[in-house]
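Input (Alpha-1,4 glucan phosphorylase):
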Amino acid sequence: MATSKPSALDLKQDLKRHFDLTLGRGDTNYSRHYLYQSMALAVRDQLVSRWRETRERYRREEPKRVSYLSLEFLMGRTLHNALANLDLEDQARAALQDYACDLETLETEELDAGLGNGGLGRLAACFLDSCATLEIPVTGYGIRYQFGMFHQKIVDGYQQEAPDQWLRDGNPWEVESPENTRRVPFFGRVVVEHDPQGRECRRWVGTEDVLAIPYDIPVPGYNNDTVNTLRLWKASATEEFNLGEFNSGSYTDAVSKKTEAEQITMVLYPNDASEAGKVLRLRQQYFLASASLQDILHRWISRKGHDFTGFAEKHAVQLNDTHPTIAVAELMRLLMDEHGLGWQEAWALTESTMAYTNHTLLPEALETWSVSLFEHLLPRLLDIIYEINARFLQVVAQRWPGDVDKQRRLSIIQETPERAVRMAHLAIVGSYSVNGVAALHTDLLKQGLFAEFYALWPHKFNNKTNGVTPRRWLANCNPGLRDLITETIGDGWIRDLSQLDQLVPYADDTAFCERFMDVKYANKQALATLVANKTGIEFDPSWMFDVQVKRIHEYKRQLLNILHVISLYDRIRKGDTASMTPRCVLIGGKAAPGYVMAKLIIKLINNVAHTIAQDEQANQWLKVAFLPNYNVSAMEIICPGTDLSEQISTAGKEASGTGNMKFMMNGALTIGTLDGANIEIRDAVGADNFFLFGLEAHEVAQTRQNYNPQQYIEADPNFQAVMHLLQSGHFSLFEPGIFDPIIAALTASTDPWMTAADFSDYCKAQEQAACTYKDKTQWARMAVLNTATSGRFSSDRTISEYRDDIWYRAPEAVRKVS
Ligand SMILES: *Cc1c(COP(=O)(O)O)cnc(C)c1O
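Output:
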């Protein structure tokens, strides 16, 4: 049943009611902040009835439910997306007329929900939008971190981290649901007992429990009345703490216990693509897995009792990387210890319910947890993992009799350097589906990292190339382009992005191309304003905007980018500007607080930017800025205003990338390596419309055999000049030697990222891009083609593949693979 849309008057009245009554603000105080809160509450009112109806529909129709478990959801702001999906934008503008505030300004009052590091967390957010839009009954399960991704400041060129207080002013989008509180055990010990039938059973006793309180956030589909749920868990101390320990007189001990429980959901770990092995992180993972699975089982039991026949036909659990993988063992525990199932029955359910998405090939990112830590924190879970492993190793022994080495390599338990649980192995063994996130990535998983698992279970492996939601990343963030596209081909593309291919013929339509580039110019003005406000550097919108924004990591090679910038600077100083294209280079991204090299790269970028800003001559041709605190809201201004998208990772290291897709949709051209989804982007847009450079993945592996960076430097006078400027301390006059570690890494034969090997080819591709940019007609044509062929990179396409190949594969097929 469609919910009727409120009239302008309704929204206006709701806004006023919340402003006057809910928040108790008089008409003398039109503070923007309270106005934002009132608008958010008024819009939430509109979501609530649709939300309830969606829940009731799912209850009535009993479709198969999908739970998307992720330690990260990088949602960004909610208001604009909610208004657009409910088609209430015009009403909101009308409602604001009395308050002398425009909608865009009001929207900037909202703080980003930054509950994620980067691509992996943003993917989860895009997926939720697509699931609601495609009306798939998917619930996101995550953690309500009190502090999300840290706020980055740049002081004297160095990154400084400040806490992200996103809940400071309250969160109007969440609804606390204490009636659905779950109880998560930790510590304690395992005792062996016998049930009335005399069967041996194990009990986890003496645990210290923590309460998980759910906070629900509505996830509206695009113009369709479906509102799904993102359920985020907050940790809280149990009542026993309060009663028992407080009354026994140890007041301060009791308070510190309570604080310890609540620590679990205090802060997001700011590590992207690397694991630190911290106890609190394992507690977060188990807390999420246990609370979410209890939630799922509770709903089943309240309707069907303890008969689990058909459970797997009605549930799928998608694991976003190995982070929530303890769910495999936890589902076994809950089914056996709490609900009385035997091992075989429980295992059949578990391995036909769980599906695992791998996100990285980097060895430092593969999670292991020490056995001793597990034993202390989750003794019953370790028990179960041992049993899963024993049974799995029998399968390995049957398949490869006598091959003890293979058993050692495949074992869920690693023996050296310390005994540890390999979470990826647990995920593969416990899942019916294992997917990579781009074609190359999945191939590399099958051939390399997981080759032996692939040999054992080829049917489990599949590819699901990532995508991004075209609502947030085109329609909402780029209204100029949205209107031009809709005027040209209608608005069907917002739900079906493949329709953008109807724009292909317009790449040769002069009038269309001109309008397309006018929109781009306006977006560049907006981006220039952002850059000026945040850095003081003035970008000229008529210059080429060359942008690299993403987490700072050596494999993503921001260093390669800045080396190229230095080479341009060197050319300008030498007067070699005859054929130069003026360009503005923007770099942004956060480094993990403990990642020393990444932080030093930020310092180098800032010092180079500073040196260039001080140089009158260089400024005629080149502007460089480091944008602090890159986040979702910044990207919404950045990708519409970019000409050239930098996707320059070492081939074979970037699993997919999704920033590359946002830029492409908004008409940026890519300069990139054959890595991750870049390959598929280039296939889609055509080799002529992509600036390719660098070694391929197999060449990287080969070249590594006897890699000699010096040979590449000596072969290229440009490269020599760059190294000379670096080594002479030109960018660190007041802090001599600070960049020595960068020089050492770049020139080491062991450099895993092979930056030197790709430098010369990169500069050539940059020169080609610069040359092309001078030909406005040609550039416009290529830009239009990028948008026109980006349809495949909608997360709607990705999610429809998850739906058809993983979540709703016929149950027989599911059972057959288990
Ligand atoms: C899209 C996005 C990312 C992922 O960028 P990659 O270039 O794919 O690494 C990271 N952070 C934010 C804020 C994003 O919007």
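The two ends are 39 Å apart (CA to CA).
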